[in-house]
Specification:
By secondary structure, the protein is an alpha/beta fold. It has 2 domains: 3-283, Type I PLP-dependent aspartate aminotransferase-like (Major domain) (Aspartate Aminotransferase, domain 2, 3-Layer(aba) Sandwich), CATH 3.40.640.10; 288-432, Alpha-Beta Complex (Aspartate Aminotransferase, domain 1). The chain is 40% helix and 13% strand. It has helices at 3-9, 36-43, 58-71, 82-94, 108-117, 133-137, 162-171, 184-187, 233-236, 247-251, 255-268, 274-284, 287-307, 325-331, 347-357, 387-392, 409-423, 425-432, and strands at residues 75-79, 98-102, 123-127, 144-150, 176-179, 197-201, 215-219, 311-315, 339-344, 362-363, 373-375, 400-403. The strands form 2 sheets. The chain has a 7-stranded mixed β-sheet with strand order 1-7-6-5-4-2-3, sandwiched between helices. α5 (108-117) links the parallel β2 and β3. It is globular, with a radius of gyration of 22 Å. The N and C termini lie far apart (57 Å).
Amino acid sequence: MRNETIAIHAGYEPEATTHAVAVPIYQTAAYAFDSADHGAALFNLEAEGYRYSRIANPTSAVLEKRISELEGGVGALAVASGQAALHFAFVNVADHGGNIVSVPQLYGTTHTLLSHILPRQGITGRFAESDKPEAIERLIDENTRAVFAETIGNPAGNVCDIEALAKIAHARGVPLIVDNTVATPILLKPFDYGADIAVHSLTKFLGGHGTTLGGAIVDSGNFPWAKHADRFPGYNKPDASYHGLVYAERFGKTAYIERARSIYQRTMGSVLSPFNAFLLLQGIETVALRMERHCENARKVAEFLRADPRVAWVNYTGFPDSPYYSLVQRYLDGNASSLFTFGIKGGMEAGKSFYDALKLITRLVNIGDAKSLACHPASTTHRQMSAEQQRTAGVLPETIRLSIGIEHAADIIEDIDQALEKACPAARLQAAE
Protein backbone atom coordinates (compact mmCIF):
# COMPACT_ATOMS: atom_id res chain seq x y z
CA MET A 1 0.00 0.00 0.00
CA ARG A 2 1.00 3.63 -0.53
CA ASN A 3 1.50 6.20 2.21
CA GLU A 4 -1.96 7.74 1.89
CA THR A 5 -3.63 4.35 2.35
CA ILE A 6 -1.32 3.12 5.11
CA ALA A 7 -1.96 6.30 7.11
CA ILE A 8 -5.69 5.54 7.19
CA HIS A 9 -5.91 1.74 7.30
CA ALA A 10 -2.75 0.10 8.61
CA GLY A 11 -2.85 -1.77 11.90
CA TYR A 12 -6.61 -2.07 12.38
CA GLU A 13 -9.56 -4.11 11.20
CA PRO A 14 -13.03 -3.61 12.76
CA GLU A 15 -12.81 -5.49 16.06
CA ALA A 16 -14.85 -8.66 16.52
CA THR A 17 -17.13 -7.65 19.38
CA THR A 18 -18.74 -4.46 18.07
CA HIS A 19 -17.27 -4.17 14.55
CA ALA A 20 -16.38 -0.53 15.34
CA VAL A 21 -14.90 1.19 12.29
CA ALA A 22 -12.98 3.78 14.33
CA VAL A 23 -10.13 2.52 16.50
CA PRO A 24 -11.55 2.00 20.02
CA ILE A 25 -9.98 3.73 23.03
CA TYR A 26 -9.05 0.94 25.41
CA GLN A 27 -8.96 3.06 28.55
CA THR A 28 -7.86 0.29 30.88
CA ALA A 29 -4.90 -0.20 33.18
CA ALA A 30 -4.79 -3.99 33.13
CA TYR A 31 -6.08 -7.13 31.41
CA ALA A 32 -7.56 -10.33 32.80
CA PHE A 33 -5.64 -13.61 32.54
CA ASP A 34 -7.22 -16.89 31.54
CA SER A 35 -5.26 -18.69 34.24
CA ALA A 36 -2.12 -18.53 36.36
CA ASP A 37 -0.18 -20.24 33.58
CA HIS A 38 -1.49 -17.74 31.01
CA GLY A 39 -0.35 -14.82 33.17
CA ALA A 40 3.05 -16.43 33.67
CA ALA A 41 3.49 -17.00 29.94
CA LEU A 42 2.73 -13.32 29.23
CA PHE A 43 5.21 -12.10 31.81
CA ASN A 44 7.86 -14.54 30.59
CA LEU A 45 7.42 -13.15 27.04
CA GLU A 46 6.39 -16.63 25.91
CA ALA A 47 2.89 -15.65 24.73
CA GLU A 48 1.53 -12.64 22.89
CA GLY A 49 -1.12 -10.53 24.53
CA TYR A 50 -1.72 -7.70 26.97
CA ARG A 51 -0.95 -7.73 30.67
CA TYR A 52 -0.63 -4.07 31.77
CA SER A 53 -1.00 -0.78 29.88
CA ARG A 54 2.40 0.45 31.03
CA ILE A 55 3.83 -2.21 28.70
CA ALA A 56 1.30 -2.39 25.86
CA ASN A 57 -2.26 -1.30 25.08
CA PRO A 58 -4.53 -2.22 22.14
CA THR A 59 -5.13 1.40 21.08
CA SER A 60 -1.41 2.19 21.24
CA ALA A 61 -0.69 -1.05 19.38
CA VAL A 62 -2.65 0.21 16.36
CA LEU A 63 -0.61 3.42 16.42
CA GLU A 64 2.62 1.41 16.63
CA LYS A 65 1.66 -0.81 13.71
CA ARG A 66 0.65 2.17 11.59
CA ILE A 67 3.88 4.07 12.20
CA SER A 68 5.95 0.94 11.67
CA GLU A 69 4.28 0.26 8.34
CA LEU A 70 4.70 3.88 7.21
CA GLU A 71 8.43 3.60 7.93
CA GLY A 72 8.75 0.08 6.53
CA GLY A 73 9.89 -1.37 9.85
CA VAL A 74 9.28 -4.61 11.73
CA GLY A 75 7.89 -3.02 14.88
CA ALA A 76 7.48 0.17 16.86
CA LEU A 77 7.11 1.34 20.44
CA ALA A 78 4.90 4.33 21.28
CA VAL A 79 5.93 6.36 24.33
CA ALA A 80 4.91 9.54 26.14
CA SER A 81 6.98 12.04 24.11
CA GLY A 82 9.64 12.39 21.47
CA GLN A 83 12.29 12.97 24.14
CA ALA A 84 11.32 9.76 25.91
CA ALA A 85 11.68 7.97 22.57
CA LEU A 86 15.18 9.39 22.10
CA HIS A 87 16.19 8.43 25.62
CA PHE A 88 15.01 4.86 25.18
CA ALA A 89 16.58 4.65 21.72
CA PHE A 90 20.01 5.63 23.07
CA VAL A 91 20.09 3.59 26.28
CA ASN A 92 18.78 0.53 24.44
CA VAL A 93 22.12 0.35 22.60
CA ALA A 94 24.42 1.81 25.26
CA ASP A 95 23.18 0.68 28.66
CA HIS A 96 26.47 -1.16 29.16
CA GLY A 97 28.37 2.11 28.56
CA GLY A 98 30.00 3.64 25.52
CA ASN A 99 29.43 6.66 23.32
CA ILE A 100 26.96 7.94 20.75
CA VAL A 101 28.51 9.84 17.81
CA SER A 102 26.20 12.59 16.56
CA VAL A 103 25.98 15.34 14.00
CA PRO A 104 26.09 18.77 15.69
CA GLN A 105 22.84 20.14 14.22
CA LEU A 106 20.36 18.98 16.84
CA TYR A 107 17.25 20.15 18.60
CA GLY A 108 18.37 21.84 21.82
CA THR A 109 16.90 19.33 24.27
CA THR A 110 18.41 16.43 22.33
CA HIS A 111 21.79 18.13 22.58
CA THR A 112 21.27 18.48 26.35
CA LEU A 113 20.38 14.79 26.61
CA LEU A 114 23.59 13.75 24.88
CA SER A 115 25.91 16.33 26.40
CA HIS A 116 24.69 16.51 30.02
CA ILE A 117 22.13 13.85 30.99
CA LEU A 118 23.39 10.62 29.43
CA PRO A 119 26.99 11.16 30.63
CA ARG A 120 25.63 10.83 34.19
CA GLN A 121 24.45 7.37 33.13
CA GLY A 122 27.83 6.38 31.72
CA ILE A 123 26.99 7.20 28.09
CA THR A 124 29.01 9.88 26.31
CA GLY A 125 27.71 12.07 23.50
CA ARG A 126 30.31 12.94 20.87
CA PHE A 127 29.53 15.79 18.51
CA ALA A 128 31.20 15.97 15.09
CA GLU A 129 32.35 19.27 13.63
CA SER A 130 29.75 18.99 10.87
CA ASP A 131 27.21 16.60 9.40
CA LYS A 132 29.69 15.43 6.78
CA PRO A 133 30.21 11.65 6.82
CA GLU A 134 33.98 12.01 7.20
CA ALA A 135 33.52 14.17 10.31
CA ILE A 136 31.34 11.46 11.85
CA GLU A 137 33.77 8.70 10.91
CA ARG A 138 36.66 10.35 12.75
CA LEU A 139 34.85 10.05 16.09
CA ILE A 140 33.85 6.38 15.92
CA ASP A 141 35.94 4.06 18.08
CA GLU A 142 35.67 0.68 19.80
CA ASN A 143 33.37 2.16 22.46
CA THR A 144 30.88 3.66 20.01
CA ARG A 145 27.41 2.17 20.23
CA ALA A 146 25.56 4.14 17.55
CA VAL A 147 25.72 7.01 15.08
CA PHE A 148 22.91 9.54 15.41
CA ALA A 149 21.50 12.22 13.12
CA GLU A 150 18.32 14.15 12.51
CA THR A 151 17.31 13.46 8.92
CA ILE A 152 16.35 17.15 8.70
CA GLY A 153 17.91 19.22 11.46
CA ASN A 154 15.81 21.32 13.80
CA PRO A 155 16.21 24.27 13.40
CA ALA A 156 19.22 24.17 11.07
CA GLY A 157 17.24 22.56 8.26
CA ASN A 158 20.28 20.59 7.12
CA VAL A 159 19.63 17.34 5.27
CA CYS A 160 21.90 14.47 6.27
CA ASP A 161 23.38 12.04 3.77
CA ILE A 162 21.70 9.01 5.32
CA GLU A 163 23.15 6.40 3.00
CA ALA A 164 26.71 7.61 3.55
CA LEU A 165 26.26 7.75 7.33
CA ALA A 166 24.78 4.24 7.34
CA LYS A 167 27.71 2.82 5.38
CA ILE A 168 30.19 4.37 7.80
CA ALA A 169 28.29 3.16 10.86
CA HIS A 170 27.88 -0.38 9.52
CA ALA A 171 31.53 -0.62 8.51
CA ARG A 172 32.39 -0.04 12.17
CA GLY A 173 29.75 -2.42 13.50
CA VAL A 174 27.23 0.06 14.92
CA PRO A 175 23.65 1.03 13.98
CA LEU A 176 22.51 4.35 12.56
CA ILE A 177 19.72 5.94 14.61
CA VAL A 178 17.87 8.83 12.99
CA ASP A 179 15.27 11.29 14.22
CA ASN A 180 12.82 11.47 11.32
CA THR A 181 10.38 13.89 12.98
CA VAL A 182 10.70 16.78 10.52
CA ALA A 183 10.75 14.74 7.32
CA THR A 184 8.19 12.11 8.42
CA PRO A 185 8.02 8.88 6.40
CA ILE A 186 5.90 10.82 3.90
CA LEU A 187 8.94 12.73 2.64
CA LEU A 188 11.70 10.28 3.59
CA LYS A 189 11.89 6.61 4.54
CA PRO A 190 15.37 6.35 6.10
CA PHE A 191 15.33 2.53 6.22
CA ASP A 192 15.44 2.57 2.42
CA TYR A 193 18.90 4.16 2.71
CA GLY A 194 20.38 1.98 5.44
CA ALA A 195 19.24 3.58 8.70
CA ASP A 196 18.49 1.03 11.42
CA ILE A 197 16.31 2.84 13.95
CA ALA A 198 13.95 5.79 13.43
CA VAL A 199 12.68 8.03 16.21
CA HIS A 200 9.70 10.39 16.06
CA SER A 201 8.13 13.11 18.08
CA LEU A 202 4.54 12.28 17.15
CA THR A 203 3.60 15.65 18.65
CA LYS A 204 4.83 17.33 15.48
CA PHE A 205 3.92 16.64 11.83
CA LEU A 206 2.52 13.14 12.29
CA GLY A 207 0.01 14.29 14.90
CA GLY A 208 -0.32 17.66 13.25
CA HIS A 209 -2.90 19.33 15.46
CA GLY A 210 -0.71 20.62 18.29
CA THR A 211 -2.83 19.06 21.04
CA THR A 212 -1.09 15.82 21.94
CA LEU A 213 2.36 14.76 23.12
CA GLY A 214 3.72 11.43 21.94
CA GLY A 215 6.82 9.70 20.66
CA ALA A 216 7.78 6.52 18.85
CA ILE A 217 10.77 4.32 18.13
CA VAL A 218 10.69 2.22 14.94
CA ASP A 219 12.93 -0.80 14.33
CA SER A 220 14.00 -1.64 10.78
CA GLY A 221 14.90 -5.19 11.83
CA ASN A 222 18.07 -5.00 9.76
CA PHE A 223 20.89 -4.53 12.25
CA PRO A 224 22.67 -7.87 13.03
CA TRP A 225 22.90 -7.71 16.83
CA ALA A 226 24.17 -11.29 17.12
CA LYS A 227 27.05 -10.53 14.75
CA HIS A 228 28.36 -7.86 17.12
CA ALA A 229 27.94 -9.73 20.40
CA ASP A 230 30.92 -8.16 22.18
CA ARG A 231 29.76 -4.61 21.47
CA PHE A 232 26.11 -5.33 22.36
CA PRO A 233 26.06 -7.83 25.25
CA GLY A 234 22.54 -6.77 26.20
CA TYR A 235 21.25 -8.56 23.11
CA ASN A 236 23.49 -11.58 23.26
CA LYS A 237 23.89 -12.52 26.93
CA PRO A 238 21.16 -13.88 29.20
CA ASP A 239 18.92 -11.27 30.84
CA ALA A 240 18.64 -12.20 34.51
CA SER A 241 15.46 -10.13 34.88
CA TYR A 242 13.76 -12.47 32.38
CA HIS A 243 15.16 -15.77 33.61
CA GLY A 244 18.04 -15.90 31.17
CA LEU A 245 16.23 -14.78 28.01
CA VAL A 246 18.61 -13.81 25.15
CA TYR A 247 16.94 -11.15 23.00
CA ALA A 248 18.84 -11.78 19.75
CA GLU A 249 17.98 -15.48 19.96
CA ARG A 250 14.37 -15.16 21.09
CA PHE A 251 13.25 -12.28 18.89
CA GLY A 252 15.62 -12.19 15.92
CA LYS A 253 14.79 -9.22 13.69
CA THR A 254 12.60 -7.58 16.34
CA ALA A 255 15.19 -7.88 19.13
CA TYR A 256 15.77 -4.13 19.42
CA ILE A 257 12.16 -3.05 19.77
CA GLU A 258 11.20 -5.97 22.02
CA ARG A 259 14.11 -5.19 24.33
CA ALA A 260 13.08 -1.51 24.43
CA ARG A 261 9.54 -2.48 25.43
CA SER A 262 10.45 -5.25 27.87
CA ILE A 263 13.19 -3.37 29.70
CA TYR A 264 12.67 0.37 29.33
CA GLN A 265 8.96 0.81 28.77
CA ARG A 266 8.18 -1.71 31.49
CA THR A 267 10.53 -0.30 34.13
CA MET A 268 10.83 3.41 33.27
CA GLY A 269 7.15 3.94 32.48
CA SER A 270 7.11 6.76 29.90
CA VAL A 271 3.69 5.60 28.80
CA LEU A 272 1.52 7.06 26.04
CA SER A 273 -2.10 7.18 27.19
CA PRO A 274 -4.68 5.33 25.05
CA PHE A 275 -6.57 8.58 24.49
CA ASN A 276 -3.40 10.29 23.22
CA ALA A 277 -2.78 7.33 20.92
CA PHE A 278 -6.32 7.75 19.55
CA LEU A 279 -5.80 11.49 18.95
CA LEU A 280 -2.49 10.88 17.20
CA LEU A 281 -4.12 8.31 14.93
CA GLN A 282 -6.61 10.97 13.85
CA GLY A 283 -3.75 13.24 12.85
CA ILE A 284 -1.86 10.54 10.98
CA GLU A 285 -4.87 9.90 8.73
CA THR A 286 -4.28 13.27 7.01
CA VAL A 287 -0.48 13.54 7.22
CA ALA A 288 0.15 12.83 3.52
CA LEU A 289 -2.17 15.62 2.43
CA ARG A 290 -0.84 18.02 5.03
CA MET A 291 2.79 17.48 4.08
CA GLU A 292 1.98 18.47 0.49
CA ARG A 293 0.49 21.78 1.64
CA HIS A 294 3.21 22.36 4.24
CA CYS A 295 5.93 22.07 1.59
CA GLU A 296 4.05 24.08 -1.03
CA ASN A 297 3.37 26.95 1.39
CA ALA A 298 6.94 26.94 2.69
CA ARG A 299 8.31 27.37 -0.81
CA LYS A 300 6.10 30.40 -1.42
CA VAL A 301 7.04 31.99 1.91
CA ALA A 302 10.76 31.34 1.39
CA GLU A 303 10.63 32.91 -2.07
CA PHE A 304 8.87 35.98 -0.65
CA LEU A 305 11.45 36.38 2.10
CA ARG A 306 14.40 35.97 -0.24
CA ALA A 307 13.10 38.69 -2.55
CA ASP A 308 12.42 41.13 0.29
CA PRO A 309 15.10 43.81 0.92
CA ARG A 310 14.34 43.80 4.65
CA VAL A 311 15.59 40.21 4.96
CA ALA A 312 19.32 39.55 5.41
CA TRP A 313 19.35 35.82 4.70
CA VAL A 314 17.08 32.79 4.23
CA ASN A 315 18.20 29.24 5.01
CA TYR A 316 15.86 27.18 2.83
CA THR A 317 17.12 23.95 1.28
CA GLY A 318 14.74 24.20 -1.67
CA PHE A 319 16.89 26.93 -3.25
CA PRO A 320 19.37 25.60 -5.86
CA ASP A 321 22.26 27.42 -4.17
CA SER A 322 21.66 25.66 -0.84
CA PRO A 323 24.49 23.24 0.05
CA TYR A 324 21.77 20.67 0.77
CA TYR A 325 19.82 21.11 -2.46
CA SER A 326 21.20 17.94 -4.07
CA LEU A 327 20.33 15.91 -0.95
CA VAL A 328 16.79 17.33 -1.05
CA GLN A 329 16.48 16.03 -4.60
CA ARG A 330 17.91 12.66 -3.67
CA TYR A 331 16.21 11.90 -0.37
CA LEU A 332 13.12 14.12 -0.34
CA ASP A 333 12.16 13.97 -4.01
CA GLY A 334 12.69 17.72 -4.24
CA ASN A 335 10.31 18.53 -1.37
CA ALA A 336 12.17 20.92 0.90
CA SER A 337 10.93 20.96 4.47
CA SER A 338 8.40 23.49 5.75
CA LEU A 339 10.78 24.10 8.66
CA PHE A 340 13.38 26.73 7.82
CA THR A 341 15.12 29.77 9.28
CA PHE A 342 15.85 33.35 8.28
CA GLY A 343 17.24 36.58 9.67
CA ILE A 344 16.17 40.16 9.02
CA LYS A 345 18.35 43.23 8.68
CA GLY A 346 19.03 44.89 12.01
CA GLY A 347 20.19 41.81 13.89
CA MET A 348 18.74 40.41 17.09
CA GLU A 349 16.75 43.49 18.14
CA ALA A 350 15.06 43.77 14.75
CA GLY A 351 14.40 40.04 14.86
CA LYS A 352 12.72 40.35 18.26
CA SER A 353 10.60 43.25 16.97
CA PHE A 354 9.52 41.15 14.00
CA TYR A 355 8.72 38.22 16.26
CA ASP A 356 6.63 40.34 18.62
CA ALA A 357 4.68 41.89 15.72
CA LEU A 358 3.37 38.60 14.32
CA LYS A 359 -0.41 38.22 14.46
CA LEU A 360 -1.49 35.15 12.48
CA ILE A 361 1.70 33.15 13.05
CA THR A 362 1.84 31.82 16.59
CA ARG A 363 4.87 32.43 18.83
CA LEU A 364 5.81 29.15 20.51
CA VAL A 365 8.38 26.34 20.50
CA ASN A 366 6.41 23.58 18.76
CA ILE A 367 6.75 22.64 15.08
CA GLY A 368 4.69 20.64 12.62
CA ASP A 369 1.30 22.00 13.62
CA ALA A 370 -1.39 22.69 11.03
CA LYS A 371 -0.93 26.32 12.10
CA SER A 372 2.09 28.41 11.11
CA LEU A 373 4.49 28.77 14.03
CA ALA A 374 7.52 30.92 14.81
CA CYS A 375 10.32 30.57 17.33
CA HIS A 376 13.42 32.51 18.38
CA PRO A 377 15.73 29.51 19.09
CA ALA A 378 18.61 31.39 20.74
CA SER A 379 16.38 32.49 23.62
CA THR A 380 14.19 29.37 23.88
CA THR A 381 14.89 25.90 22.46
CA HIS A 382 18.69 26.36 22.33
CA ARG A 383 19.28 28.76 25.21
CA GLN A 384 21.12 26.11 27.30
CA MET A 385 23.84 25.88 24.64
CA SER A 386 26.86 28.17 24.44
CA ALA A 387 27.05 30.75 21.65
CA GLU A 388 29.53 28.57 19.78
CA GLN A 389 27.38 25.47 20.19
CA GLN A 390 24.37 27.43 18.95
CA ARG A 391 26.27 28.59 15.88
CA THR A 392 27.41 25.03 15.09
CA ALA A 393 23.81 23.87 15.43
CA GLY A 394 22.70 26.52 12.92
CA VAL A 395 21.39 29.11 15.39
CA LEU A 396 22.45 32.77 15.17
CA PRO A 397 21.30 35.50 17.60
CA GLU A 398 18.89 36.88 14.99
CA THR A 399 17.61 33.51 13.74
CA ILE A 400 13.84 33.12 13.39
CA ARG A 401 12.61 29.57 12.88
CA LEU A 402 9.41 29.18 10.90
CA SER A 403 7.24 26.09 10.75
CA ILE A 404 4.88 26.91 7.91
CA GLY A 405 1.35 25.59 8.31
CA ILE A 406 -1.47 24.76 5.95
CA GLU A 407 -3.33 28.10 5.99
CA HIS A 408 -3.65 30.01 2.71
CA ALA A 409 -0.13 31.04 1.71
CA ALA A 410 -1.20 34.61 0.95
CA ASP A 411 -2.41 35.08 4.52
CA ILE A 412 0.86 33.78 5.95
CA ILE A 413 2.86 36.12 3.71
CA GLU A 414 0.67 39.11 4.62
CA ASP A 415 1.37 38.53 8.30
CA ILE A 416 5.11 38.27 7.68
CA ASP A 417 4.99 41.41 5.57
CA GLN A 418 3.30 43.52 8.25
CA ALA A 419 5.70 42.23 10.92
CA LEU A 420 8.71 43.09 8.74
CA GLU A 421 7.30 46.56 8.20
CA LYS A 422 7.14 47.15 11.93
CA ALA A 423 10.58 45.69 12.58
CA CYS A 424 12.54 47.53 9.88
CA PRO A 425 10.38 50.03 7.98
CA ALA A 426 13.36 51.94 6.58
CA ALA A 427 14.84 48.98 4.73
CA ARG A 428 12.15 48.83 2.03
CA LEU A 429 12.32 52.60 1.47
CA GLN A 430 16.10 52.48 1.10
CA ALA A 431 15.83 49.64 -1.39
CA ALA A 432 13.27 51.58 -3.42
CA GLU A 433 15.53 54.61 -3.58
